[in-house]
Fold each of these.
Amino acid sequence: MIRFEQVSKVYPDGTSAVDGLDFEVAEGELVTLVGPSGCGKTTTMMMVNRLIEPTAGRILVNGEDIAGVDPVELRRRIGYVIQQVGLFPHRTVLDNTATVPFLTGWKKDRARARAAELLDLVGLDPSVYGPRYPEQLSGGQRQRVGVARALAADPPVLLMDEPFGAVDPVVRERLQDEFLGLQATVRKTVLLVTHDIEEAVRMGDRIAVYGQGHIEQFDTPASVLGAPATPYVAQFVGADRGLKRLSVTSVQQEDLEEPPRARLDEPVGPAAARLRAEGARWAVVLNERGELHGWVSTDDLARVGSDDLVVGNLARRMNAWVPMGAPLKHAFSEMLQWDAGWVAVLDGARLVGVLTPRKLHEALRRSVEADALGVAPHEVAFDSVADA
Ligand SMILES: Nc1ncnc2c1ncn2[C@@H]1O[C@H](COP(=O)(O)OP(=O)(O)OP(=O)(O)O)[C@@H](O)[C@H]1O
């Protein structure tokens, strides 16, 4: 979708910003460009919408050499989100969002209806925020408007330059998640510039790690963290890359354990006896459809003992859960937040299994070793601490 062929840029004062860039971003792919200040990320990005012209090489968008495309026409096909957002202060949020449709000659009503749809999509109620002016929004809300505006004309390509850089870390993480959710539906081809390796790893299908003016490694987050191509990349991704892997390694079926189970409508006495016999101190409580209702302690069941009650009467709320496929980091933070010894893993509302700290550790080690060996994670066999 976006193709760089031996692209270089030397500024008029002789500064060589980038040299010999050669890579491709596939349709619907999100590629993050990451590297230290001044390494050429922004230059790379601004060449795609012709705010900067390369001095050598060509850039193709959808197979077409952009050197031959009128820049104004080109920019209408490419959404652009920048850190400073650049909203017009004297226009309402709704009209700011509708900027590009207005420019391309849409009727006002149609453009505003589209803008309202997009504000909704980025989590801003158009009836509340649409009539406001940019200064009446928080930083995070302004960033959302920036994203909505860039999507308004439904461009196939999005360029994002430090789009979440101006907000605090908590808001940033929320905006990142929201954008990933959005991207799963809109599937734009995205180039995202950041100097933050955490953001690059979380957001990117692939990451381009920049050295000075060139790409040191172009690969998936798991490979960049697991098998840095050069000492420079290893140093850039940091010594705690094992921890960072938590965000890119997802919970898999083979990581799960089968927990003791009890049914919501099971009488308390027999349930207690059965769990005791199994040596289980607790059980997950499921309804007749196999959906998670909560959990119950065997001691509580035994203490009550009455057959007038069912397990559901004593069940407690299960706070610590994640959807199947969630990053291990999410599971880990649920464990910490709820001080839980295990986390339920759900497919919709249905319980698939539970993740324990031991399994979480194994999953992480398996992912690291799989990369080192160049095989899929489930092909790695190793002795776990518990087997020793
Ligand atoms: N107009 C210009 N004239 C001369 N040199 C420039 C110009 N714009 C950028 N540069 C230089 O080109 C190099 C790459 O800059 P660029 O802005 O692409 O880096 P970056 O990786 O985006 O940095 P940052 O993260 O700080 O924004 C830097 O050395 C910068 O000083």
Amino acid sequence: MLRSGALRLCAPGVLRGPRRSAAPPTRESRPPPRSFASEVIRVDLSLPNPSWSKDMRLLFDQFMKKTEDGSWKRLPSYKYVSPQRTEVKTFFPDGKPVKEDHMPQAQLFPRSLEEGLGFEYAMFHNHVENRTVCIFQGGPYLQGASGFLHGGAIATMMDSTLGVCALTAGGVAMTANLNINFRRPIPLCSVVVINSQLDKVEGRKLFVSCNVQSVDGKTLHSKATSLFVKLNPKEV
Ligand SMILES: CCCCC/C=C\C/C=C\C/C=C\C/C=C\CCCC(=O)SCCNC(=O)CCNC(=O)[C@H](O)C(C)(C)COP(=O)(O)OP(=O)(O)OC[C@H]1O[C@@H](n2cnc3c(N)ncnc32)[C@H](O)[C@@H]1OP(=O)(O)O
């Protein structure tokens, strides 16, 4: 349940009523794929919700336009809700879990906070250019220095975007090295764009880099380079 404080802080526009633009996609519950128990409901968290600010919605709409010619794809991020438990299993469109859960309460970290209070994001991938873009609005529970995002929260979203870029381009891989420069702080509840790209592949090693910029592109908030190592198929 979204708390009104978060709603006011991150998306003042929603208090004046819904957007009137032509039928943008929004979150909805859908039945899960056949491989899941029939009572489980699947929700795509990469779609707009009322906590998204105007900037977040505008950027989302711009990227959705880029998906029309097939060069960019939006990457869904599913949450599975059953009467017994609530989980986030995977972002892949086929909705298959990566592994059987050892812990029923386990959730994908950036999807574990309540709507609007933590990580609000959507990712888009360009398969030709091996690039992943994440539009990210960090909510009030992610505060570090007063009024700004915590560096760990920024690192989380950079790691996630780099990881998705590596995984989408090369298969299941884990972060082996992540090297970040924080250049300018990110105001809480503002929207930033994380641009990542696959730079090089050497055997099982995937070198991926990214930067974090303000929506207008004028402020470079952070930069990172990373190494992902593809896992041995027997370990996946
Ligand atoms: C079961 C895991 C599932 C993984 C997740 C899969 C799917 C997730 C699905 C949905 C999630 C959605 C979105 C989020 C996506 C991603 C973001 C999150 C990613 C993470 O948050 S993930 C957590 C933090 N991450 C770790 O917890 C890793 C701990 N670690 C290890 O598990 C091992 O360390 C591993 C596997 C990395 C490698 O181990 P290994 O035994 O397979 O390979 P090995 O050590 O032989 O290295 C092979 C070659 O890489 C070079 N190399 C290795 N490490 C290096 C380093 N640091 N610097 C420079 N070079 C390095 C070697 O020098 C060698 O190079 P060369 O071949 O040239 O000799």
Amino acid sequence: MRSPRDFYKPLAVGAPEPLREIPFPPSRMIHFFDASNEKMVARLPDTIAKADIVLGNLEDAVPVDRKEAARDGLVKVGKTIDLGDTQLWTRVNSLESPWFLDDLTTLVSEIGDVLDVVMVPKIEGPWDIHYVDRLLAQLEARAGLTKPLLVHALLETAQGVAHVEEIAAASPRMQGMSFGPADLAASRRMKTTRVGGGHPGYLSMSDPDPDNPDAPRITAQQDPWHYSIARMVDACTMNGLLPFYGPFGDIKDVAACEAQFRAAFLLGCVGSWSLHPVQIDIAKKVFSPDPAEVLFAKKVIEAIPDGRGVHMIDGKMQDDATWKQCKVMVDLAEQLAAKDPALAEAYGFESSAA
Ligand SMILES: CC(C)(COP(=O)(O)OP(=O)(O)OC[C@H]1O[C@@H](n2cnc3c(N)ncnc32)[C@H](O)[C@@H]1OP(=O)(O)O)[C@@H](O)C(=O)NCCC(=O)NCCSC(=O)C[C@H](O)C(=O)O
Ligand SMILES: [Mg+2]
């Protein structure tokens, strides 16, 4: 563990100073694309116009014989496509893979100046972040970068979940975390074949009716991810990082995707992944606060400008703590409204977007 005095010192001579605060631009969806897929690259200008973050994926879902093409394609994207205010991220291959070193070396030296965040999969503990941290510092120094690259950990193993707080605190480069339900299910030996969402077998059941023991009993599907996502949200928030839900694999089941995203949003996640264009719109809808809630939150803040005391507003008790919840909602709404005139109108703000 580094001394607290050294925490913000660059890890290589000539590397940029670590950031004190993690930037929080609109981050409702991390849209995955494979830069070796011509159709996805052809759609990129349209995707960039719609998505808050686009991520060139190099890891799982990219076939072994296209790993280098995906990396080279991402370099080309970074050098040639105008990203406007959309962030460009990458997910590199895992640390033990034969591609990780070349992924990081190539991307930092070729497009380190336009890349915002490096997502690292299968992070198991702070030792993984320490390795990436030092290597990035060396590569940044060699490339003459002036802005540090940020690191996003993918939480998708039992060991990663067990060390989530230490991972979040491992480096000032830590930008956030995403939740990877597919690898996590495999790592835990869960008996599922899905990518996120619930399962019809994961239920709770009401007691039998004593007067009618054979009557059907009420069952309700439970959320198998609640515990781990809540831990991730706490670990991120206490360290000033941004938590994201990850993938939802049943692309056609837009209703279940929306439910999974909304559960994550309500627990504190700022966004989710989108694997298909249809999921960009779902994430945008879910991770932009509901206009009715924003209008109510504005009403509370207007009625209690100093956030103190106890008040009744629309029949509900409001105090310092509810005022803070309203502030979270209104701050997010203001941030999104600045980028999106339709949201600005729905929230009753003047839009500053052109
Ligand atoms: C899931 C897909 C393979 C589906 O692709 P496809 O069968 O081509 O779908 P459609 O025919 O509906 O596509 C319509 C058009 O849209 C384009 N498209 C599809 N996906 C994307 C995309 N992500 N970005 C841009 N454009 C996209 C198609 O090319 C079609 O175009 P056109 O023919 O011109 O109309 C595919 O969506 C896909 O590969 N998605 C990404 C998958 C991915 O990245 N997976 C890895 C992340 S999940 C994970 O790793 C698990 C996690 O780590 C964990 O452990 O939990
Ligand atoms: Mg995974």
Amino acid sequence: MIARKGATLSSSNADVDSEQAYLTALYQRLDQLREQADNRLRGILLEAGGTPQGRTQREATRAHYAEQLAQFNSVENGLLFGRLDFSTAPHPRYIGRIGLFAEDRDRDPLLVDWRAPAARSFYLATAVNPDGVRRRRHLRTRGRVLTGIDDEVLDISAGDGTGREDVTGEAALLSALTANRTGRMRDIVETIQAEQDEVIRSGLPGVLVVQGGPGTGKTAVALHRAAYLLYTYREQLTRTGVLILGPNTTFLRYISQVLPSLAETGVLLATLGDMFPGVRARAVEPPATAALKGSLHMLDVLDNAVADRQTVPDEFVEVDHDGYPLRIDRAVLEDARSAARRSERPHNVARQIFVTEAIHQLSRQIAERIGADPLGGENLLSEADLAETRRELREDVDVQAALFEFWPVLTPRQVLRDLLSDADRLESAGCTPEERALLLRDRSAGWTPADVPLLDELAELLGIDDTLKVREQQRQRRAAIEYAEGVLEIVEGSRSLDFEDEGAEKDEILSALDVVDAGAFVERHEVIDTRTAAERAAADRTWVFGHVIVDEAQELSPMAWRLLMRRCPSRSMTAVGDVAQTSELAGTTTWEQVFEPYVAQRWRLVELSVNYRTPSEVMAVAADVLAAVDPALRPPRSVRSAGVSPWARRVAPAALAVELIADVRKEAALSEEGRLGILVPESLEASLGAELVASVPGAAVGEQPDLLNHVVLMTVRQAKGLEFDSVLVVAPDEIIAESPRGLSDLYVAVTRATRRLGILHTTDLPKVLSSLA
Ligand SMILES: Nc1ncnc2c1ncn2[C@@H]1O[C@H](COP(=O)(O)OP(=O)(O)OP(=O)(O)O)[C@@H](O)[C@H]1O
């Protein structure tokens, strides 16, 4: 455990001056590069016209410089943070957020990107395995000013020998860990620890599972891994994109600054509720309903629900065709339906087969009526007549409408909405009365995150009838060409005036129509897609990502994993989570269960064992809760103590709000700059939230509380992945009672604190917290 600054040595004034000079020179170089990128960007924005290829090239160059500029701006803070001195090499190596090279011809490295192999010893070198490093120096800066230097001498004979072997950069680490929380996660690039570094720099292919207790840095590692992968496999991943899936939008906001501070922006951060384009699923539903929707049983239910939309009449329907009644028999439609189903194509695609087959049979029916030889010979209609009959049937709106009714074109939203709001449909799809009671809801209900994998599954079952899409694209292109022809005619029409003015020979002067026809004109003006891969991926359900990172991965249901696996057929994935913290009923408690079906044994498990967030005093309390979740599980080891004991206080139920507010005031006064989290059972959220807001102005409560506030009240579910300097857990017995995974929820709740933990209870303390009695 870190208790003091270990092997940190004080630095001389001369060191400070020379490091400041180096820092200043680095910023000068950064300014120079920024100016160059800015000038090039301006130049490109002034250019216009050119060939389509030229414009595409120009757009790529523009995007390149815009990205460079954004990158230079984003590293303005903390550009430089480390220096390595080697036993044998004469020159030090400086480590920072990005790589910078000197302007000279040799392009000497001035600053090494933390992700480059040359920077790795900064994170791995220890006194026992110094890897040639004599001294590791952490440089602290504020803006462009050097504010501190922490040195670690790795040559044992030269140091005082008090440094810890399992922690690198003790002083810098301790200062990061004890700093006040801000409501936004910070990057850890200056103090990545060896076990974390191994995960971050793991290769791109395959499934990597990172299991770690609370506070072991799983989220931090996941984000730094994204930055590392984008740096190392830039070309591949810029094209295909990286997805980071987080548990909820509050969490995404909490982590939103980390990648930009690492100069990486091209990553799609999303929740499960965002994974179906056009739907932002934010509605809430009972955990048991979400659990049922997340189970693989829904595959059969959805399959049946789609099949139920492929109907036939009791006996027949009659439509008017060409002035005659046309009878469409049940048998005709049954045959057509069987043929379409046999094709095993998605519903909307198989519809073509259904229609073709039905029309084929109906055309024979008509042929028999009008082409029958009165003398009993062969039918008098030729093949051409039959083809014409089929064409007429196909174009007949009444026939179309009848066939549409029996095999309609369907959308995922329509099928799911109809299914979930209709008890008969649910029953017919194979749901038991208990399941129906859980699933049935109003037609107007909003989408929930657990609906999204169902919508995605339905999109697969329904498919898209490309013929309609292609027809629409062709129609749009024809319309564009017609428009372009109009434009060119106007150009052509206005030309004669110029000729007359100039007195020139008409034929000798090129007109717009001589150099470009309408088709080329359209091509030239087709919009170049300037969106990043992440932006395009967000709008495209079928986008295939180059890498997918899942945080709080233990919470995802089997149906959600199916969706993710579809987005990542290469199975290049990182899943980080903790099976002891699972609170969703459809979540998992073993990683085998999740990955075996997709990659069999071919996944790697790495465990993180050190808790950077929660001090040892708090972790001792959490350990008892964990033992009750599963006696086989061991909590991660805290890297530090806070010197503050957790406490518990019993209050009368009627006085809970008043007592809570008194504690909030006390805690807030203890750490004015820090953040206080109040974690409550769902049943008390609304009432305590209202009382709190009335007494503590500015406190954040509700569906998506703003974490930048100093006081935030939320449920444990909302607090997943978050942390606060100080945490008050209210009514732990109710937190336990509210869910079959209540003990895991309590474990999550007590491990959110970086410094202080208090428990307010209205009944006897639950046994798992008896150490606080
Ligand atoms: N190497 C490190 N240097 C500095 N801070 C670190 C380091 N590793 C982790 N931390 C900090 O520890 C805290 C916990 O990290 P993080 O939220 O990533 O943990 P986690 O494993 O995802 O936790 P949980 O399972 O509870 O969500 C964060 O404040 C993070 O910045």
